[in-house]
Amino acid sequence: MYSVLPDDQLAPWVIKAGLANEKQIAEALQYAKNSNCSLYEALLEKGTVGDEQLGQLTANIIKVPFVVLAKLTIPEDVFNIIPPVVARKQKAVAFARGPGGIKIALANPAKKEVLEMVAKKTGQPVLVHFATLQDIQNTLHIFKPDLQAIVNNLLKEDIGVVAGKVLEDPPVVKLVDILVTSAYDEKASDIHIEPEETSTLVRFRIDGILNNVLQVSKYLHDRIITRIKVLSNLRTDEHLAAQDGKMRIKLDEENLDIRVSIVPVADGEKAVLRLLSSRNRQFTLSDLGMSETDLKKVSAAYTKSYGMILSTGPTGSGKTTSIYSILKILNTREKNITTIEDPIEYRIKGANQIQVNVKTNLTFANGLRSILRQDPNIVFVGEIRDNETAKIAVNAALTGHLVLSTLHTNDAATAIPRLIDMQVEPFLVASTVTVIIAQRLVRQVCTHCKQNVPVDYATLAQMFPADVIKRNLGESKTLMTSKGAGCKVCRSTGYIGRIGLFEVLEITEKIRRLITDRADADVLTKAALEDGMIGIIDDGLKKVAKGLTSLEEVQRVTKAEFL
Q1: CATH code of the region 283-562
Q2: In CATH terms, are 7-142 and 283-562 the same topology?
Q3: Do 188 and 206 meet the contact criterion of CB atoms below 8 Å apart?
Q4: Taking a C-beta distance cutoff of 8 angstroms, is the pair 419, 425 a contact?
Q5: What gap in Å lies between CA 146 and CA 41, rounded to an integer?
Q6: Domain 7-142: what homologous superfamily?
Q7: Cβ burial 139-151 (10 Å sphere, 16+ → b, else e)
Q8: Quick one: pLDDT at residue 271?
Q9: Contact call for residues 186 and 275 (beta carbons, < 8 A)
Q10: pLDDT tens, 303-343?
Q11: Of 4, 7, 2, which is closest to residue 41 (Cα–Cα)?
Q12: Where are the domains of the chain?
């Protein structure tokens, strides 16, 4: 939790400065309470106040000069006055040096240790400035050495090789720690450690895309895998079977839980580490990119004490994150929330979470039966995979429980025939399902290197169906889009972070009649669009028009919708 000022002190200043009204502050405070964050963070995450505006206001209140590091050119020798490890820990950047002394930007000017260290090291006065945490983190990222260079230096310092023989054991403990820390800093969701014929390749999945980040000699591979097995309490003498485990690494920011999967492949054992950061637990549906119209539909569904809410989409589309966002809102002491998941990705304080265990016959269906005897108000079923689970979930929703679950379907309407295929009677589907959320995740255009690019109608027509273009463009012949040119902050990709594209199908009386009549998915979709539903591609084009993402991203994640 980050804030320079206490919430009760910051709130009146924000209102006085005209940056937000009392209603917005009340909403931000409620959001902060639900998300376990500060008012400062809540105002930023909700987009109520901009980072620079809030930074300038904070600097005025604490009477410390404000600096925007992103607008400066910082000499490398000045930046290196503070060692990278200290800079990262203290959230401090040395950005200028002159006759008056060394200027240092701090995310929290109350921290004096780093100032004393710099004064002692240089023998010069230190001039304190305030910079926002986001600005400092971006600056630290720009100056961060390449992972390959860091590892090469580590291996050069700690081991020697003569005539092809390793003189000392390589520093594998340090190497694994560097991999995890670097992946966390890059906001990667997964680390892939892949054996090849003569080397080992390490890849990070960042914003849903795999990136090659490191290549090391093959002799290190078995040692790295053994270290991961030790941390995950897996068998180090087993090399021919798949193994799953979990480990926890202590970082400065948090205790990071990591899910580990190791499988034997042609050239050795491959490890995939899924980073379960608490940063991913704090999203709200609004943060994920859901529009006000869709939020009202979802809100109307989860405020009922019964019924079923379904989240659909392919693997990695953020379904579980959306469900957790709803559970976080519903999680009060008056309610009993019980979940059955495979695996449990994040711990929800106050909820009873059950892990599926096939060895003990604790399947989704059997677990769900047991849950219903536990007097639950709200039930989350990780995934509806079979007929039995589908029937029990529908019956639970019918008998006064609010049931949330996920399904693997391409769009919202297809979830209906999928449930009917699982031998759930159409009239039961019609009377229990209240809302279906289909979603995808697209990368956001980097705000540091964003450029405006007009796109003509002919180009759009090659990428999207004509009816979708007409719905969103009308008579206009061009669409103003945004594209990232590529910079150090976004690793030259042009993108940083992700946002959701949503399609929310509300089960109205009209849709209920169609379900009961066994209408197919196309008919249901057409009826929902006539009733005002925003399709996934439509939502994508709206976000393109707002400069949040690119046409290429929308096409990448939705192309299956119009093949």
Answers
A1: 3.40.50.300
A2: no
A3: yes
A4: no
A5: 29
A6: Type II secretion system, protein E, N-terminal domain (3.30.300.160)
A7: bbbeebeebeebb
A8: 98
A9: no
A10: 999 999 999 999 889 898 899 889 988 888 899 999 999 88
A11: 2
A12: 7-142, 145-277, 283-562
Going from the first residue of the chain to its last (563 residues), give the mean pLDDT of each consecutive group of 10, the final group possibly shorter. 86 93 88 78 81 93 93 90 88 91 92 88 92 90 87 75 52 93 92 96 94 94 96 95 93 87 96 85 74 92 95 90 89 91 84 92 94 95 94 94 94 95 96 96 91 88 84 77 88 90 96 96 95 93 92 87 50
Beta bridge partners of 451: 483
Work out the number of other CB atoms within 10 angstroms of the CB of residue 255.
9
Amino acid at 11: A
- What is the pLDDT, as a whole number, of residue 561? 56
Average pLDDT value for the chain? 89
**Beta strand pairing status for 352-355 and 337-341?**
parallel
Q: Give the DSSP per-residue string, 216-258.
A: EEGGGHHHHHHHHHHHTT--TT--SS-EEEEEEEE-SS-EEEE
C-alpha 470: how far from chain center: 32
What is the distance between the alpha carbons of residues 229 and 247, in angstroms, rounded to a whole number? 9
Residue-by-residue DSSP string for 160-194? -EETTEESS---HHHHHHHHHHHHHHTTEEEEEEE
How many other CB atoms are there within 10 angstroms of residue 181's CB atom?
16
Q: DSSP 3-state assignment of 434?
A: strand
Residue 157, H or E segment: helix 147-158
The CATH class for the domain spanning 145-277 reads alpha beta
For residue range 368-397, list pLDDT tens digits in order.
999 999 999 999 999 999 999 999 999 999
Residue 108's H or E segment, with its range, is: none
In whole angstroms, give the CA distance from residue 321 to residue 326: 9
